[in-house]
Every structure is written in structure tokens, then in C-alpha cells.
Design brief:
Chain B: One of its GO terms (molecular function) is oxidoreductase activity. The complex is a heterodimer of chains A (586) and B (255). Chain A contains 24 helices and eleven strands. With 586 residues, chain A is α+β, with helices and mostly antiparallel strands. In chain A, a hairpin with a 6-residue loop joins strand 8 (419-423) and strand 9. Chain A is globular and about 85 Å long. Mean pLDDT of chain A is 94; it is low at 6-10 and 580-586. Chain B is α+β, with helices and mostly antiparallel strands. Chain B has a single domain, classed as Ribosomal Protein S8, Chain: A, domain 1 (2-Layer Sandwich). Helix content of chain B is 39%, strand content 25%. Chain B contains eight helices and ten strands. Chain B has helices at residues 5-19, 23-38, 43-56, 86-100, 116-125, 203-216, 222-233, 241-244; strands spanning 2-3, 64-68, 72-81, 102-111, 129-137, 142-148, 156-162, 175-180, 195-201, 218-219. Classes of the chains: A alpha+beta (586), B alpha+beta (255). The interface between A and B is large, with 64 and 53 residues.
Chain lengths: 586, 255
Amino acid sequence: MTSADLVSAAPLGLRSADEVMRLERLGSLHATRLSFVRSLVRQMARQRWQVSRVRFDLDAEGHGTAIYRLQTPHGRYHGVMFAQPLDDARRSDRVIAEAWDVTFGLVEGDVDDSLLAQMAANVPLQEAGRQHPRVLVLSRANKSLRNFAHFAEALARGEQPDPAWLTRVGYLYRTTAVYGNGKFGIADFARLLDNPDFRRPFSAQMAGVYLLRHFSIEQVEHLAACRSPDTACRLATELRRYLGIGNSTGLGMAPFLINHPQLIAQWVTQRETALTLALRQAPEEAERERLIALTRRAMQHLDETVTEDAEQAERNAATVAALPDVLTWLASVPLEADIWQQLVEWSARTLPLEAQELINTLLIELYPDQVDALEDRMGVAENLDLEPDMPLMRLRQLIETHYGWALAHDYASREGAYWFWYRSAEKEEPRLGVRHAEPGAEKEMPIAIGPRVARTHQALCDFLERHPRATVVDFLLEHPRHKEVVRRIQTLVREPYGDIHANLWHRDMKPMHLLRTKLSFFGASRFDPKSDRWVRITLFQGAPLVEELNAEPQDLADFDDWSFPLEPARAGEAGSIHGRTGVAAQ
Amino acid sequence: MIVSYNELQGLCRKAFSGIGFEDGDAADAADMVAWMQCHGLHGVEQLNRGLDYLLEEDPEARPRLIYQDGDLAVLDGQGHSVLRSISLATELGFAKARARGLSVVKIRRCHNRQLIMGYLSRLAGRGMNITAFWRNAQMPLTEQVVAFRAGHATPEVRVYSVRDVPEENEPNDGITLVMANHVELLPSLGADHDLDLLAHHPESELLACRQLALKEGIEVDDAIWARLKTLAHRILVESSDASRGGAGAGDHDND
């Protein structure tokens, strides 16, 4: 029995849902070693995945088609990239955009001429195209114009770009949607459930993004070489590694979180299980030193992180300001068997939420042997099933025990019912409207679970007065509109990390927390909110490179150690990046 | 056109919401249609045939309980499609079978009956043996029987005609559901009866259909797809310059 099995057999000690599922705490989560980008990189290294370039037909402006082959022990896939000119007036990160700098797909199997022609005609259209059922992932990305121009110019001159540019914005491209699971005709996720390469949630999407990262490096090097074949150099390894892929995300993540509660419960359960496993370890001095080193690295990473958003900047600064105390605590407290438990109890009393969750992330980082098996438990069969024979009184008790948070809000007040969520006719973009001021509330998306639970609770209490011995199905035959909420409650009382404990209608609700919740499980870093409901983040910054993967690394632990990446030293500094580190790109 | 399972399910869900289905009913109805379609049982065509009726139905009218005791229930489907809220009638049978070992539920006056298979699949997956029976036509008299083994989400389906039609042959626009907690109820046709087997879909054949649908996508008629899209559009809020700000992002990102 593995450590993870032991915990699931005796799940005592996991934090309560009332603590973990509070929106403010979820909005303070950091990526962990169980995040999807980390799991994917480990899997690729462990199984010796190989990436090769099979086509690179780009013109001097970098426009054209590139194809990368991804070979695993079980299968072969291709990342097919279409880079095209884009008028600045059309460059938008929003889902309502209709053209992008790069569009791409990850395909299962080989790409023959006929499939390539089909993709060339449809992938650049994204949502407006009809995609092939062998396409696993469909995505698009826009350039960071400033970074792209700076990198191309510097490399063309034979110089390395200033790493500070990547600290400000950690990528050359940011994706604006990464579609999987059957969207616009691509393959259903159900088809991947028997596929050992991509059966984990979002792993195919992350693989597509990883290939885009490699393409972005090769494209900018190609551009520099075309501009100045005599002087151009390749990007230094430290900078390549420090280059990630951005993602620009809006409110679309919110409906996903609410509409997949069992999946979210599964993700949070694995993270909480990992934390519990870490807390149970009695550390040696080496682990304490490792935690101190990780804390220092995270502190520097957050200190370097740039955001124009005042609130996020303040949260980063508060975390950075708190961490010296953590270092002092770690250095001074006797190394007792329950020291990690003492640490989290102390941090809960004294540190801001983001710092508390950072400590949790770092504790999980310490114990790969104990926690990494949990990455295979991120998936779940989703079925909100009714228990029709449950006594209605029992359901009432369950609501009052597990959904106290939902019953505690006032949904009748103007403040408590301020927002409504809806989909716009403009490409179905999710938006927020002010209930008493904007049209469309009658078409509200029912993603605020709190008011629905409260309504159902009221209706079943009234029913019980007249029918005290009723079952759930008796109630629902009279009041069928409560079916969805009832089966959600009945299911999620067994999976208590499924519902977010917040009133998503409330004026003070922060949508950004919802976005960060999901992005943290993806493995996002550098949270850079652009408004209260729109954020840019970075994926794979610091991750090993394709050439390092292809070299079949021996030290897998070292290969996996890329969280909280730091800015490489500038030219002329110790350990600096020099120009002309390689031959000019082809 | 070729669509994915998730796409079909998603569009149906939005279309049913557009028609005015409650949230849970829209999800169940979409599952029923997509389930039928991916098992090669023409769910979209069935839906299309009943769509005009659905649009005319009173959304407040729901199956009415006429009689029930511990093991038995009779409901009036009020002439509506099984898509809107028949799930609760089947859940009633499920609850009774769990309590008493075996239940019989008769749902009178309903149409689109084939589509109920998609929901019964979920009940079977929850550990219930189920047999559903109905008559499809009076002349010639045809009968359909659908049977799920407990724990198996895919049934065995038989359709046959009865040559020796009984004198008393009233129109049958209902469904009879038999559920058993512990006993398998499989449709083995009696050799002594004067029957013509018109169709037989064993579990393995339906599963193979599903596999193929996931691999190659699902063929759907363009006109029906367009109609579902129009219905789905009803749940969307028209865009305006003001609402564009409701997503909280700028329009151009040239930084």
C-alpha cells in the first residue's frame, strides 16, 4: 500500500472544506508539484518522450507552418503550428477575437497531406472552423510584441536579450484559449481515458502548450537569423529555460469550476492529501535545509514578480515581507517530529493567506516519494446522481451540516444579489452584469450555487411540514426544479471539496479568486491581473527544454526541480549569459 | 456534419435551456439524446421528430402521479416528451426497487419514448437491473424491450412484431418499467410465440458503436444542428458596448 493509499484509507487530518473552499483561500493557492505542468514534465522525462521537428516552413517574417513530432512509448503525436501575419487592430486576447499570431493543434497519430490541408483550412479559424476528430487540442496564441521585437533584435545583433524582459513578461506568446474535450469537432476526452499518455485531465493541453514554447524559441531564432545571418546567435540556454508561455484568461474559468464540482473536489482532495502526507513526515536536518532553500527561492521569485495590479502587488509584497520570519522560525525551532505541523499552525496564526498557502506548497515539494502517486488520481468519472430514496429529513440535515455557508448569506439584499453571470451572444463570452442595472438577468447562468441551495432548503422545509416522512423523490415529483441542486448536494456531501463556499452574486465577490483557483492546478505562476476579472499568467517558465528532454536525463529529481524560477544573471555578471552561445538558426 | 459527443451534448443542453427546460432537466435531456446518438440509435433524429411538440408543451405540466403503493406506481405523462422530466418517474421506480426488491412503474401518455434509454442507462450504472417495455405501432403490432444488467450502462435491445394480434389492441402510448435490485431481467424471447424479430442490438454492438463515435465523431444532419443552434441562442444575452466591459478585458492587446 502506498502512502497515498494509506491516507485515502484513513482520511483523518485533511483540512475542513469550510477552511479550504473559502474563495479567498482558493484565490491564494500557488502551483504545486502536483500541478499539471509539473506532472507532465515528470512523465515526459520518466518515459523518455522525444520531440523532433519534422517541418519548419517559415518565411523571413516567421510566417508559415511548423510541425513537431512527440514520440512516447505508447504513441505518436504531432504539434501543428500555423504562424500568420496579424494586423494590430485584430490582436485581442479575448474570446471574441477572430484572428491570432499563431494557431495550432495537437494531433494523435501522423499528419498526412490531406489532414494538413484540412487543418490549414480550419485551425486558423479556431471556433469558426470544423476541426478533425484526431485533433486532441486546439489553441491559439498572440505575441508579446515588446518581448518578441526585443528578442529578435538582440539575437539578430548576436546579443542575448536582457533577462529582465522575461521577468516582466515571461514569454514570447500567450495563449488565449486551449481547447480540449470535443470542442469544435476535436476528440472527446472520453477517448483519452484508455490512453496512458494523456488520460490525466488537461495533460494533452499542457503538452500542446509545451510544444508551442519550443516553437516560440525556434521561431524567434529563425527570425533573427533571417534578418542578420552573419551576426545572429541562438538564445542562451538559461534564457530559453526562463522563457515560458503566457496565458490570458477571463471569466470563462468560472463556469468550468462550478460545472465540474467532482473534478474540482478530486484536485483539491489530492492537494490536501499531499499536504497531510507531508505534515506526517518527521523531517531530518536535510529536509529542513531543503525547505529553507525552497523558501528563499520562492521569496526571490515573488520579489522579482512584476504586476501593475495594485492588489496583487500588495499581496506579493506581503508574502515576501512575511517570509524572513518563516526563515527565522525554521532556523530556530528545534527539529521535532511534528515540526511541520507546528509550522502550519504557526503560519495560520501569523501569516497572510498567500504566504500560508506558499508554505503548504513548499512542504508538498519536499516529499516526491510520498505525494507524486497522487497525480494519477486527478481524474474522475463525473456523475451527479440522485439518491431518490433518501428521507427528506436526512437531506435537510445534510444541507444544514454541509451547506451552512450557503444558508448564511442574504440573497435578497441589493448587495447580496448584485452580480449576475451570463453568456453574451458575442461568441458566448461569459460576462458579469449588475442585476438591477443591466439587461439579461432573466438569462442568468445558474453558477451561483449558494442561492440555489438556500431556495431548495426553504422549499423542502415547507414540504416537510406537510409530509414529515417524505423521501427525496416524493419532494421532487412535486418540485422538480430542485432536482439539479438536490443531486449536487447528495453527491458533494461525499466529496466536500466540490463547492466553493462563497456567494457568487455578492458585490464584494472577487472573480479573480476563481480564475486563480483553476490556474494554480494548471501550474501557473506570475499572476498578473489586468482587471478584477482578467488575468495573465505564465506556464512552463523555468521548465526543462526539449533538447534536455531529448537527452534522456538521468537525474529525474533535478530535472523536476524548476518551480519558482529566478531571473538569470545579466551579461557581465557572475554566471552570466553571453552572446553567440550557439550557431545561427537555420 | 461531424461533431463530437461533448459538442452534441453541450449544444443539446443549451438548446433545451433555450426551450425553457429547468437546468437539471436540460442536462438530463441532452444526455439522453447524446447517449442514443453515440450508440447508433438515432437520438438526434428522434429529437427532431419530437421538437415541434416540445416547443408547444406547457413547461409547467409535469408527470402526474395517479397511483402508487410500495412496489407499484402509475403516472400520467400528460402526452409530453420523455425528455422534459420523465427522469423523476424512473427515479421513483428506482427508489421503490431499492426498498422492496422489485418495482413496476407504468408511465402512460408520453412520446419520444426511445430516448428514455439514456436515463435508464444511468440508473443501471447505479446498480439496478431494468427492463423497459413499450409498443411502437399497432398495425402491424410491434413491441420493444430494452434490458439493462445492474452495473452495465449499455443495454440489450430487441424489437419484434407480433403476428398473432390480440383482439383487444388499444393504442399504447406508455412505457412500463420493471426494476429489480438483485435479479437480472433479460429479454429472452420465448420460442413458442409467433414473433418476427425486427431488430436485435446486443450490448457488444452498442458498445462498439460508442467506441466508433468517440474515434471518428458523430454524423449529424446540418439542418437539425442549425435548428439546435438557433434554440441555444435563446440563452445568450445580446451584446452591447456596455456589456463588452462585463468581461473585464480590453479590446486590443498589442503590448
